[in-house]
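does this look right to u?? magnesium ion version
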Amino acid sequence: MARIPIDLSKGKLKEAEKTTDNIIIGIDLGTTNSLVAYLKDGKPNVITDSDGQNTLVPSIIHFEQDNSVIVGTDAIEKLISDPSNTIFSIKRLMAKSFQDVEDFKNFFSYKIIDNDVEDSLVKIRVRDKFYTPVELSAKILEQLKKRIEKSLDVVVSKAVITVPAYFNDAQRQATRDAGKLAGLEVLRIVNEPTAASLAYGIGLDADDVKTVAVYDLGGGTFDISILNIEHGIFEVLATNGDTFLGGDDFDRAIQQYWVSEYGFNLDNNVALSQQLRLAAEAAKKSFSVNTSFETRINDQLCKIDRSTFEKLVKPLVERTIIACGNAIKDAEISIDSIDEVIMVGGSTRMSIVQDFVSDFFQKELNNDLNPDEVVALGAAVQADVLAGNNKDILLLDVTPLSLGIETIGGLMDTIIARNTKVPIKAGREYTTSVDGQKNLKVAVFQGERDLVSDNRKLGEFVLRGIPPMAAGIPKIEIHFLLNADGILNVRAKELRSGVEQTVEMRSPYGISEEEMGRMLLESVQNAKGDIAVRALIEARTEAQTVINASHKFVKQNASILSPEEIDRTILLVQKLEDATSKEDKDIIQACMEDLNEYTTPLAHRALDANISDAMKGKKL
Ligand code: ADP
Ligand code: MG
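got this back:
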């Protein structure tokens, strides 16, 4: 059984002379800001920009006319001057489908695409290119990697990346993929509250048994997590929060106050509203030290004092406290069994927040560390543990390579990610791609590459006897159980009919360390190409679904559509079909979008017609 990650130094990395292999970096990939840290002489350090000033990299990506990118501080002003080509809050879109984000799509100033295929993931359109949230997050990670490599003059290839405790499996996998695309081997995905605890040294002692509350108020999101820590194992007892409550709302409260107080007219005046927003944030931050603030905006003296500010924002703070109460309830514990309260996120600098939180928990707060940095610092501590530098910490047995199954187009779909501690149970639901499909082949692979042909096959079997149903209707759960002895049991079950089969696979560990090192190295070196191939295959698969659906649609609604509409639809379908034989995913996406845009109003009309038919009693 493998104990800790594989040493990549045994492979031949191109820039081998420069690689300092024991450096594993810790990354906080935030909604608003991202940071990178590493452990130096036993102390975690956050890396600053080249002026030695800023530790934060704003999570903003701007695309220039020629599609080159600017990431971070320099991209901030583009939010106003070029909003449709400037991406912010990409973390909110990780592994999300259009249905997931439909209710808040107006929050984004850039274009989010959905191809109307059930469960298809969102893409972002920037001019004529389409990007996935994974690709965009990778741009931020690349920036962080560059920053630390420049600062330390080494090549870095391994990282620990943090995610919110409430992130699901798909969001975690997407974060791993982003790391890989940025040229980083992601040794572990760590929960943000776990990292924050580690930064305070909580849980580092193997004898520690503690219940911890982590209160994280960032730029746009709030979450509270209750953790149970026992012998180096962090268990999330409950999480709660509000994904649309954060520092931005506090800024907006001041801005609105000034607008009503001084009668600013913001209609069609983006520049003024931006100026007010920035001044409002400055006012908010100033209250960490001062009791009043004033500034001049367009010859108007704008003032606010701290007590007025606190009156304005009290309802916001109260909402976070309600969420804390709910988390405690869900965790089924009492407030006094909480041993530590940890403050995370830039917005916890506000004294009104600190007062309410310590009042609620009846405790002194852990807030000595910089709340912007605490998650990144903890990620660096975790990275150091993984590097094996901290001998006191218990290392759990982990699975050395990812385990997954082959999906359409020969793609690897990871079910148990590498470095997951064992024993572990994990599963995911799949469906059929052909009408009336009776059998489903389940092929199990091990490895980090995107195409199964580059990974190692552990075995395969066929689930037989699925009752005939239309494509997409069967619900087939593939369930992996990897026990502590490294035996993998795979179960496939069609949930509607109950048809199931279980097969024991040969040990995923029958592989030499050298072989494993080679596989990992190749996965990092080939990440860019692999992900491009995956994107192309996925676009083709999606296009095929859209083509089939469009044919069906035209056939079923021939009486409702005009001959021109039918011709035009068929023409657009033909164009899409032609595009799928090309090697360019952006062309496929663009054709899909054209078709979708054209047929959406037709589909609405068809739906209305069918409903009114049904009302007339013709159909039911
Ligand atoms: P995220 O985790 O969402 O990436 P951060 O933890 O970096 O966000 O928090 C960013 C927020 O912290 C911003 O809204 C910013 O205005 C706020 N912030 C930073 N410093 C202060 C301060 N001194 N007082 C109040 N809010 C602050
Ligand atoms: Mg954060």
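Confidence is low (pLDDT under 50) at residues 1-18. idk if thats expected tbh
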